[in-house]
Sequence to fold (171 residues):
Amino acid sequence: MTPEAKIALIQQVMAASHVFCTAADEVLERTLAEASGGQLALSQIKLLLLVGRPGQRFKVTDLASILGVTNAAASRAIDRLVQRGLIERSVSREDRRAVDLTLTPASRVLLDRFVELRDSALLELLGEHAPETLQAAAELLSELSAGLARSTPASVERADTPPPLADAAGW
Fold:
């Protein structure tokens, strides 16, 4: 295959992935609007999903890195969710300089509703595909994503932690 033909195929992959990601974002935005009554942004639900991961604790710097925002932006987002009663903040028992973040009962209800609506929408949109097809697509996208992440320093930092909307509890 010539380099030009290979580039053409890569551009097709990029175009298809852009369409897929745009459509997926629209599904997420729509289900989030329904679950939260239009009161939360997708970035806020991502933060809640991260904080709610069982057995994991994150520093603000970790959350900022995973979300691809500054420490100040992550801190402000946490403050807003605390003010809305969706996250509780407490001094860490292990390190008094650190802060522990936990979900509130209200945020757990919200996340459960979001996940239910999201899963229903995704099943309706993509459920017609055979499990083998979905598995092959997931493996290919993971392989392509890993290759892209290796070439982008910011992506490499986040590569070990699945995005909040792409793990079993999130996406």
